[in-house]
Amino acid sequence: MSLFNLLSVSASGMAAQRARAEVIVENLANSETTRTPDGGPYRRKDVVFESEAQASPFSAVFQTEMSAGSMGVGISQVVEDSRPPDMRYQPSHPDADARGYVAFPHMSPAEEMVDLMGATRGYQANVAAISAVKDMVSKSIDLMK
Known about the structure:
Keywords: Bacterial flagellum, Cell projection, Cilium, Flagellum. It is built from three helices and four strands.
């Protein structure tokens, strides 16, 4: 595995964690949304990761030198939460039903923040891996001087 493939794998991890953070932020922003264009309250979304082969721009050049391809991470799908919405008694709300209950998205802001911290840590781990690879390249160049 070449150093460029290591960078490609870490870059795929960073992109996946960024997409995960975007979905979490969307969930937090819509935690009180009771009306969507599809009707009903907002549905919490979650990202599903999958491993995928990484092809770097240099792969064609180095393909003969590499025996096995490297696997990065990608997003296979974004799934919506299928749990029923939280029903809260708010008779004065414009979206209240005949009994005075309003359907709110079923989510916990605390859980979303924990997931966001996990995405942040995953992103930081990939940045640290890229920094380590960059240091390895720099040290190798210094040895050749």
